Amino acid sequence: MSLRVVTSDDWPLWRDLRVAALTDAPHAFRARLADWESGGREQWRARLATPGAHHVVAVRDGRPVGMVRGVPGDGPRSELRSLWVDSEARGAGVGDRLVASVTAWALRSGARTLRLAVVPGNEAALALYLRHGFVAVGAPGEPLADGVTRERVLDKALR
């Protein structure tokens, strides 16, 4: 398995993976497929052109099997977002490699903390993040579609 950093020119690949993620695991993301399904080229290119961001695709046997984003956050904090691994590749260390890639990027970027949010009930993702040193913080996450449930926020100290 290899990791590939992608740019705005790779928007069709990113689009296809993100649509696959939102189709495969809608329960795992705050975003909904309908939010992105009709997105055109410019919407997808803009996503990948976020200044200072790090977009990575995992490739196994020539096929993309996972994705993750690292984005600059407030102050000395970066954020890990949109992690997804294809169901056929789960349990093979793909998620570990994607988390490690964003962690290394955040360190290179000078971040002191790496933050993420996980949807309640996504126990597999939570276990992955806890294994990588993330801990729950008291800050409430963004509300989900029901307007009541909130994401669970986790941080990892980097320095």
From TrEMBL:
GO cellular component: ribosome
Record's keyword annotation contains Ribosomal protein: yes
Signal peptide: none
Keywords carried by this UniProt record: Acyltransferase, Ribonucleoprotein, Ribosomal protein, Transferase
SUPFAM superfamilies the record matches: Acyl-CoA N-acyltransferases (Nat)
All copies of domain N-acetyltransferase, residue ranges: 1-159
A GO molecular function held by the record: acyltransferase activity, transferring groups other than amino-acyl groups
InterPro entries: Acyl_CoA_acyltransferase (IPR016181), Bact_Acetyltransf (IPR050832), GNAT_dom (IPR000182)
PANTHER family, alphabetized: AMINOALKYLPHOSPHONATE N-ACETYLTRANSFERASE-RELATED, AMINOALKYLPHOSPHONATE N-ACETYLTRANSFERASE-RELATED-RELATED
Name assigned to this protein: Ribosomal protein S18 acetylase RimI
Organism (species): Streptomyces zhaozhouensis
